[in-house]
Amino acid sequence: MRRPLLAVLGAGLFLVAVDATVLHVALPDLVRDLRPGAAAQVWIVAIYPLTAAPLLLPFGTLGDRFGRRRVLVTGYAVFGVASLGCALAPDVPALLAARAVLGCGGAMIMPVTMSLLRELFPDQRRRRRAIAVCSGVAGTGSVFGPVLGGVLVEAWGWRATFLVNPPVILAAVAAALRWLPRSPPGPRPWDALSAVLAAGGVLGIAFAAGPSGGGLFAGAAGGVLLGLFVRRQRRSAAPLLDLALFRRPGVPGAVGGVLLVMSTLVGLGVLLAQYLQVVLGLSPTAAAARLLLVLGASAAGSVTAPALLGRFGNARVRTAGFALAGVSLAVPAAGGLTSWWLGAALTGSGFGMALALTSSTDTLLSAAPAGQAGGAAAVEKTGYELGAGLGTTVFGSLAAAVYAARLVVPPGVPASVARVAEAGPVQAEAAAREFAAAGLSAAARAACTAGVQVSAGVAGGLFAVAAMVSVLSRAKTRGAKTATV
C-alpha cells in the first residue's frame, strides 16, 4: 500500500521540479518562435518559482485546515490546465500568465505532498525513507528537466516540454482519488489575513532580487509585510505558522540549507547548460546528458541518506553535505571545466547537495507537530522555490556581469556587432557566425567561461561558510548542554 502512495506523491513532485528547469535548454528554440526580449526571456524562466514561493505557506496550511487530499487534487488540476496553457500560448504575455498559474498549481502540490508524508508515515525510520525518496525525486526532476527539454526540443519543439504534463497529471489525480486517504479537516481556523501578509512578504523579497531589479522598494515592502505577519502570528491563538518551529534545534540551519542547495542546483544548472552548448559546442541533448551526472549522484545521495541520518544524525550529515558540495565546486572555480574535471565536480556536488537537502527536510518535518505538518512543509518548500528563483536571477546576474567585464571585443569588429555580442554569449556566437568574426567568438567563449568560474566559486564559498557555521552551531549547542548539566 505504501508504494502506490509514494508513487502518487512522487509523480506530482517530479513534474513540479521538472517544470522549474525544463526551459533551460529549450529557451533558444522558444526565443526563435516567440521572439521575447532579453528581460522577458529571464522572466519566462523565473516567474514560475517566483510565483510559487509566496503561495507555499498559505496553501500548505490550507491543507492542514481543509484536508490535504482535497488541496493536492486541486493543485494537480490547476497544474495540468496551466501546462496546456503554456503549450498553446500564442505570445509572450500569454506564456508568462500560464507559467504564473503553473506556479500556483505547484505551490498547492509541494507542501501538501510533504505534509502527507508526516501523516502517512508516522514511524520516523519509514518517514525518513519516504522523505529520501521524495527528495531524490524532486532533485532528480530538477536535473532531469534540461535533459527532457533537450530531447523534446530536438524532436518536436519547445511546446512539447509542456504537453508531457497533462497525461501524467490525469493519472496522478485518478491514483490520488483511489489510494490517498481523506485527511480530516483540522480544527484550527485558517487565517486569511495572515496568508495574504505571508504571500505578499515573500513575494516582495523574491521580486527584490528578480530579473527586473525590484530593488529597495520591493524588498522594503516585503520586509514590512513579513514583520506584520510575524507580529500577527505572535498574537494569534491559532497562528498560520507556529513561530516556535524556528526555535527548535537545527531548524534555521535546515531552512538555510534548502535555500542554498536549490539556488545552487538551479542557478548553476542554467549557466552550465549554456556553457556546454556555447563553449563546448554540444547540442541541447548532449549538453543535458552531461548534467545526468548530477542526477545520478543526487539519487545516490538520497538513497544513502536514511542510513547516514540514522547513524550520525541530521546535523552531522548536513554539515558533511555542505562540505562535500563546497569542495566539489572549487574544481570548476579553479578552472577545471574540461569534461573529466567537470564530471567529477558535478558528481561530488550532486551527492553532497542530496545529503544536505534530505537532512534539512527531515529536520523540518520532524520538528513540527502532526497537526502543523503542512506549515513546516510549506516553510521547506518556500526555501525550495525561492532558492530556485533567486538562484536563476542572482547567479545569472553575476555571470552576466562577469561576462560583460571580461569580454574583449577584437579590433575591427563593427560597433553594432559589438553591442549585440555584449548582450550575452549566445548572441555573440550568432553575430560571430553572421559576420565571420572568429575572434569575437573566442572572446565570448572566454568571457562565458569566466562567468561560470566566478559563479561556481561563489557557490562553493557559500557552502564552505555553511559547513563552518554548522560546525560552530553544533559546538555551541553541545557547550550549552554541558553547562546545564
From TrEMBL:
Pfam family, one: MFS_1
Membrane topology type: Multi-pass membrane protein
Domain of life: Bacteria
CDD domains tied to this protein: MFS_MMR_MDR_like (cd17321)
Transmembrane spans: 36-59, 71-90, 96-117, 129-152, 158-180, 192-209, 215-230, 251-276, 288-309, 321-343, 450-472
Keyword entries, A-Z: Cell membrane, Membrane, Transmembrane, Transmembrane helix, Transport
Subcellular location: Cell membrane
Domain Major facilitator superfamily (MFS) profile: 5-478
Keyword Transmembrane helix listed: yes
Coiled-coil intervals, chain numbering: none
InterPro entries per UniProt: MFS, MFS_dom, MFS_trans_sf
Entry's Gene Ontology molecular function annotations: transmembrane transporter activity
Gene Ontology, cellular component aspect: plasma membrane
Name under which the protein is recorded: MFS transporter, DHA2 family, multidrug resistance protein
Organism whose genome encodes this protein: Amycolatopsis pretoriensis
Highest classification ranks of the organism: Bacteria, Bacillati, Actinomycetota, Actinomycetes, Pseudonocardiales
